[in-house]
């Protein structure tokens, strides 16, 4: 299993840590989601609807996607597994560094991984030409929108070229949009009718609504492909509490997300400036997290931040990055100020 952020459970008194290692909306979960989840506990003595009809039809109304093409799962992670297992692609093409789970799942299933390196010197630009050129029949190519950990968003033109090449060659394109709603400006997506057989969009309530503990994600696909992916999930892929919270988010969440985006833009700018002043190289990106390079290695930075009970994501486990790269979630202005002043102390002790 690869290293992921949010490892508070490795620490003493887990809830006391200020976690910059997981990129979760710092202003959530919203009260309406918590309230709905609490109410749903009354139904814990029944099996949930194995077809998740209420949630899938609400998702169809909000997204405009056909309900038959919507699959829900126990977080986006669950759907990544089912997707790879059901498609069994000939090869998995990926631009790295990116979210480690994709490659891990492919390797577990013995699917060959073809990695295209992203480089710091050009701002981790996506090698679209090379990816399109290499795509062949039966391949799966994945675009993380925006990319984790680099924060760079794919342009509409880049995504269009990938989809065009995938469609022409009989390959599939998966776009992971789990962070898209927290991106400022919001990165482009697809609105297609009819829906291309080779296109999959992956989303979750995890980051947007700060509900990583409830595990609700969903996939938009063609009806035929959706049925295939669904057959690789367990009979009750989400629980009644998560489903109720997700429903409340769909019903009442639009203004919450708009408000959080506006706050993120301000918090992000302040954090970027503060980090640059403290000597960090901050890579350009649009996401609710920042990839930075430091003159101090991540291990010693993390050690220095322990007395402040602050967690950061070291990036040495990502292909192409070393321990001088760290990823920091953008949190509230107050939390960011705590991090910046802690860093000040850590660096003053050099
Ligand atoms: C890009 C990306 N996609 C998917 C996931 C998994 O999301 P979930 O917690 O909904 O399984 C993560 C988790 O960090 C992620 O970074």
Secondary-structure map with pairings?
Elements (H helix, E strand, L loop, with lengths): L17 E2 L11 H10 L12 H11 L6 E4 L2 H12 L4 E5 L3 H9 L4 E5 L10 H7 L5 E5 L11 H14 L2 E5 L22 E6 L12 E4 L2 H8 L9 H13 L1 H24 L3 E2 L6 E5 L4 H8 L4 E2 L1 E2 L10 E5 L3 H16 L2
Parallel strand pairs: 1-11, 3-4, 3-5, 5-6, 6-7
Antiparallel strand pairs: 2-8, 7-8, 9-10, 10-13, 12-13
> What oligomeric state do the depicted chains represent?
single chain
Please write the CATH class name of the largest domain.
Answer: Alpha Beta
Name the overall outline: globular
Helix content: 25-40%
Give the ligands present.
pyridoxal-5'-phosphate
Number of strands: 13
Task: Provide the β-strand percentage band.
Answer: 5-15%
How far is the first residue's CA from the last residue's CA?
34 Å
Q: Helical element count?
A: 11
- Major sheet: arrangement of strands: 2-8-7-6-5-3-4
State Rg: 20 Å
Structural class: alpha/beta
Q: Return the CATH topology of the largest domain.
A: Aspartate Aminotransferase, domain 2
Biggest sheet details? 7 strands, mixed
CATH superfamily of the largest domain: Type I PLP-dependent aspartate aminotransferase-like (Major domain)
Run of helices and strands:
EHHEHEHEHEHEEEHHHEEHEEEH
């Amino acid at each position: 299993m690869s290293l992921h952020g949010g490892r508070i459970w490795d620490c003493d008194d887990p809830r006391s840590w200020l976690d910059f290692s997981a990129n979760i909306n710092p202003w959530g979960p919203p009260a309406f989601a918590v309230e709905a989840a609490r109410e749903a506990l009354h139904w814990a003595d029944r099996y949930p609807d194995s077809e998740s009809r209420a949630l899938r039809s609400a998702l169809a109304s909000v997204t405009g996607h056909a309900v038959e093409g919507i699959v829900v799962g126990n977080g986006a992670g669950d759907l990544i597994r089912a997707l790879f297992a059901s498609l069994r692609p000939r090869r998995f093409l990926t631009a790295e560094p990116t979210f480690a789970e994709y490659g891990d799942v492919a390797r577990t299933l013995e699917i060959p991984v073809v990695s295209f390196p992203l480089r710091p010197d050009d701002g981790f630009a996506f090698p679209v030409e090379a990816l399109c050129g290499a795509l062949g029949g039966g391949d799966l190519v994945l675009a993380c929108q925006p990319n984790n950990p680099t924060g760079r968003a794919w342009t509409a033109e880049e995504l269009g070229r990938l989809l065009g090449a995938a469609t022409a060659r009989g390959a599939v394109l998966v776009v992971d949009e789990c962070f898209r709603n927290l991106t400022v400006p919001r990165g482009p997506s697809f609105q297609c009718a009819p829906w291309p057989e080779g296109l999959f969009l992956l989303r979750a309530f995890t980051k947007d609504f700060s509900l990583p503990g409830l595990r609700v994600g969903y996939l938009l696909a063609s009806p035929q492909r959706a049925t295939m992916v669904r057959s690789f999930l367990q009979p009750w892929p989400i629980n009644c509490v998560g489903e109720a919270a997700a429903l409340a988010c769909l019903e009442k969440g639009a203004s919450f997300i708009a408000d959080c985006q506006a706050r993120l833009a301000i918090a992000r700018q302040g954090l970027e400036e503060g980090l640059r002043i403290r000597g960090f190289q901050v890579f350009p990106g649009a996401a609710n997290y920042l990839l930075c390079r430091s003159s101090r290695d991540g291990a010693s930075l993390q050690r220095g931040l322990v007395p402040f009970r602050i967690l950061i994501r070291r990036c040495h486990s990502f292909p192409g990055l070393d321990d001088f790269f760290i990823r920091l979630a953008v949190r509230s202005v107050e939390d960011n100020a705590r991090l910046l002043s802690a860093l000040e102390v850590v660096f003053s002790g050099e």
